[in-house]
Amino acid sequence: MGSLVYFSSASGNTHRLISRLGLPAWRIPVRASEQMPSVRVPFVLVVPTYADGQGRGAVHKQVIRFLNDPENRKLLKGVIASGNRNFGRYFAYAGDVISAKCQVPVLYRFELSGTQTDVTRIRQGMERFWKPQS
């Protein structure tokens, strides 16, 4: 089975979801001064959205830095995005941006730190997603 790579800011919403999943995961650091994880297995990226009212700035700079490494990009197999439904059409928009740029599917969207239903769906989805690729 593949792994998860995720970014979570100081709010910790994405980190809380990842902790509840109980799946192997690497965290992209918040600060540029910290070392990026060396992920050398296929992974799904889990990211929050930071878009303004026009969708600009949806993908955090640290996530962009991580994906600018060609080795990381070639192992990216899908994206799961979070956001706040108050942002309407830009809810979980970072997933759409990454999907378009990296040519991978958006596998799931959840709000803030997710619900228990989101945790269950993501776990089940990851099992199904990785099965044919194993």
C-alpha geometry: globular
Number of strands: 5
End-to-end separation? 6 Å
Largest sheet: 5 strands, parallel
Helical proportion? 25-40%
Q: Number of DSSP helices?
A: 5
List the uncertain runs.
Answer: none
Strand line-up across the major sheet? 2-1-3-4-5
Percentage of residues in strands: 15-25%
Order of helices and strands: EHEEHHEHEH
Q: What is the averaged pLDDT score?
A: 94
Please give the radius of gyration in angstroms.
14 Å
Main structural class: alpha/beta
Explain how this protein is built.
It is a single chain. The chain is of the alpha/beta class and 134 residues long. The protein is built from five helices and five strands. Strands 2-1-3-4-5 form a five-stranded parallel β-sheet, sandwiched between helices. Strand 1, helix 1 and strand 2 (25-28) form a beta-alpha-beta unit. The model has no long low-confidence stretch (mean pLDDT 94).
Features:
alpha/beta; 134 residues; globular; 35% helix
Provide a quick synopsis of the model:
The protein contains 5 helices and 5 strands. With 134 residues, the chain is an alpha/beta fold. The model has no long low-confidence stretch (mean pLDDT 94).
